[in-house]
Amino acid sequence: MIPELLREKKAQFFVQYASSKNANFYYATGFKIPDPAFYMIGDDGTDLLVVHEMERRRAERESRVKEIASLKDLGFYELLKELGDPSIALSQTLFELLRTHGGRKILIPPDFPSFLSFYFRERMEVEVVENPFSRMRAVKRKEEVEKIRETSMAIINSFEYALKIIRKLKSCEELRSEIETHLFKNGFIAEDTIVASGLLSADPHNFGRGAIEDHIIIDIFPRSKEHGYYSDFTRTVMLEKNQDLEEMLEAVIEAKEKGISMVRDGVRAREIHETVCDILEERGYSTLRQKSSEGFIHSTGHGIGLEVHEEPRIYENKDILRKGMVFTIEPGLYYRKIGGVRVEDTVLVTSDGCEVLTPFRNFVRA
Predict the structure, then answer these.
(1) pTM > 0.85: yes or no
(2) For the chain, which residues make up each domain, given as ranges?
(3) What percent of the chain lies above the pLDDT cut of 70?
(4) What does CATH list as the number for 142-365?
(5) Are strands 215-220 and 194-197 parallel, antiparallel or unpaired?
(6) Which fold has domain 2-136?
(7) pLDDT band at 331, cuts 50/70/90?
(8) Cα atoms in the Cβ-side hemisphere of radius 13 Å centred on 63
(9) What are 231-240's pLDDT values in tens digits?
(10) Where do runs of H (alpha helix) occur along the chain?
(11) What pairing do the DSSP bridges indicate for beta strands 215-220 and 233-238?
């Protein structure tokens, strides 16, 4: 895919300068590194990662890149002594590397550091393009699916734990802390877990605070400390009888189940989103496509992997589902005077349909 993009754009190299906190860099290199490193891939077969000397041996063992070089190899430190400015010395070192490889035009992603892009633009042709690894990441390899499956099972385990203790706790903050601590002890990092009760649940991304009331939305989306892959899961837990909320929840469950039943290779993402909207509108609820500020006010789902939100998008777009894609189906309804409900599963597109990676009953009482 990268060589095709280079030929299309008439460029020699696509380059990134980032750490492994950047999902596209980590996907491309397979190397965990805390500080930024330079990665270049070319239509001539170049596949090169430049790191500090102290990272070289580890990069040679752990990365999937063909060739490793260190800044020391490239003469960076001698140049730094001469110029005194680390940014200029690094820019010139990397420019000389590109020139040595015959680079006349390079492609950079939108998050490429400005100090490097300005330096390169004064000396060669530079074009900003969407990072091609974002699209590549949409279809997961078998080993990636297994990592997401592992995170999914950890989520279910933490949710079952939450149900056991929810009646013993008084606040959303306490329950969030218990869930996140439970996940951390089992090797997963959860941040900003949504534990929203009462009317605060009418805001889809309200983290939740204060007393646990008649119902509570629990949205858990951790990543593995070991391999970095996320999963995502939401259930609305009913603690007291509430006819309005229960009718909303039944509608959302019907929409989610119908959406999941449509998932298969070749289906357009927008068809699933439109069907979800159809069901909710038929039940008398408003949706975003009606320009409403209440009701179903977000997309039906999003891809998940090295980021909690990535491609594909299950919305009004041109995305077509392919075998190996992993994403959420998560309809919800939100009304300021009633509260909100949401039910979400992470699913995998298979050869003959889909697999739910976060299996759990839809209607939950505690």
Answers:
(1) yes
(2) 2-136, 142-365
(3) 100
(4) 3.90.230.10
(5) antiparallel
(6) Creatine Amidinohydrolase; Chain A, domain 1 (3.40.350)
(7) very high
(8) 27
(9) 999 999 999 9
(10) 2-9, 23-29, 56-62, 76-83, 86-100, 114-121, 132-136, 142-165, 172-185, 243-262, 269-282
(11) antiparallel
